[in-house]
Each structure stands twice: as C-alpha cells, then as structure tokens.
Amino acid sequence: MTQPSPQFSVVTDGGLDALPSLLNQVPVAPFSANFGETTYAMNEISREKLYHELQTNPVHPTSSQPSPQQWLRAFEKAGTSDLLAVTISSGLSGSRNAAEQARDLTGRLVTIHDSMTLSAAQAFQVHAAQTAAQRGLGIQTALEWMRAVHEETELYFTIETLDYLRRGGRIGRVAAALGGLLNLKPVVTVDKANGTYVNAARARSYQGGIEAVTAQVTRRFGEGTPLRLGLLYGSHPEDADQALSHLSARHPIVWSDRTGVNPVLSIHVGPRALGVAAAPGPWPWER
Asked: What average pLDDT does this structure show over 123-128?
C-alpha cells in the first residue's frame, strides 16, 4: 500500500523537547542561549556544556526566542508549500509573534498553532500533527488532533534549586530565599487557560518533589488509568527511572519515552530537574 503524499509540513520551535520514538523530527526554529556577548543556538551547545557554563560562568545566561529569520529558515527546510507551525505557549514566549512576522515574509501558506504548553507536551502535539501529515490528511484534522491531545495532556515538573529561576528573573529574590531556607521544591504545571506556569504543589526535598510530580499525575487521571508518559530529566537520567517506577506501581503504562531537557530550557530550571508529560490511554486517533 503506497503512502499518501503529505498535504502540509510541520515546523516547530525550540520549546520542543523531542521524544525519540515520536514523530518529532521536524524543522526547528531554535531558541538561543546568551552568555554576555556570546550566543549559542540551542543546536550549537550541548546540555553538558550548558551545565558546565551554568555552574562556572559568572555571567548568568539569558534565553532568546527564535527570530523571524530563524522561523523563515525553518519554513525553507519544509518539503511542501503549506506549513503548520507549532509554537511554544505564547504565555511563556514571544515565539508565536516571530512566527507571525515570518509568515508575512514568506510566499507559503502558513497556519500557526499555539500549543499553549512546551517541552514533552509540545512534543505530543507535534506528533499528532505529523501523524495527520503522514496519513495524507489536512491541516484541519491536524489541528483537531492537537487540540484533543492538549486537552488531555498534563505537564508537571520539579527542580532541585530555585537559584536559576531567581537568577533569570523568573522568581523574586525573597521567594527564592524563603524556598531555599525551607528547602521547598515546587511542582510546576502549565495552566491550560493561558499557557503560563502555575504552582501545583510543594515538597520538602528534591526526592519528595519527584514523588509529588507523580502523585499529581495519579490525582489528575485516577489510579489504575492507563497512561502515555513523556519523561524529562536534567543532569541525572536516573530521575526519570524513579518517576517511571512510581507511576508504574499505580498505572498500566501503554507507552513511555524519555529525553533530556534541552539546553535553553535548562537555563531556567538549572541542571537537575524532572518532568512528566502524561495523558490517558491510546492517542485520540487510535480510539
């Protein structure tokens, strides 16, 4: 049976943490890490080098969204004239605005979809869009599948230290100092209504944070519910093993995969972090 020709191509931005076994290999408009006068696109710096710089460089890096020109380059790598651009949440970044500027500069028909999330949850939506494309279906079907995936997917993460959020201006100095004094670790999720970070829980230790992340997943979906899991780790891959072990004890796992948090997102969370994107049962189009 011959594979139908795709009607459109999918492109995305550096909010994506690609999961190896999903259809996530698409052109990417990269975010960048800026150390003073030195700038690295996220595909030009390894996670290990970024961690080394975070721990040794007196200049704390900043991150920057893709420029319209970087989006244009991603468009040019796509194989069809019709494009579907999947962006990180507009509540977290101006990447969508840059994609809209690039759309005005290209001769192609570009549909822009705000994922309202990031990381492995964004990877789930890119997979949905790519599945539709590879089946020869249209952009409207891809949009319906991405919205269904978004509605049922939750992303939770925890971090070892609040220092990097403080240094990057994402959390106030007093809040960071208080969190450090009490050794509190936040469990953060993404608000579906506006695509911004909200605190879901707190734990007294980093290991407690991992347990709290998995407890949030079970609370959301109910013990015994079959799950798909995208696991994220920073400098310690074994954190993902621990989270999977906790969840496997309470849920049948119908699919799971893991990946390291990309270098630019690591600027904000620091070297050690653990995240889980979770959704119930099979993919919406498989039901």
From this structure: 98
Q: What is the value of pTM for the model shown?
A: 0.94
Inside any domain, residue 2: no
The torsion angles phi and psi of 63, rounded to 5 degrees, stand at -110, 150
Residue 195's closest CA among 106, 119, 140? Answer: 119
On whether both 88 and 45 belong to a single domain, the answer is: yes
- The whole-number pLDDT of residue 178 equals 47
Given CA atoms 170, 175, 180, 182 in this order, what sign does their dihedral have? negative
The region of weakest confidence among 100-114, 170-184, 200-214 is: 170-184
Residue keyed to tokens 């909010």: 15
Q: List, in order, residues 6 or more apart from 88 with CB less than 8 Å away.
A: 13, 14, 15, 16, 95, 96, 115, 117, 118, 122
Range of the domain at 175: 154-286
Average pLDDT over all residues of the chain: 92
Whether residue 65 contacts residue 99, with contact meaning beta carbons closer than 8 Å, is answered with no
Residue 180 CB coordination number (10 Å): 13
Q: How many domains does the chain have?
A: 2
pLDDT at position 271 over 70: yes
Q: Has residue 4 been placed in a domain?
A: no
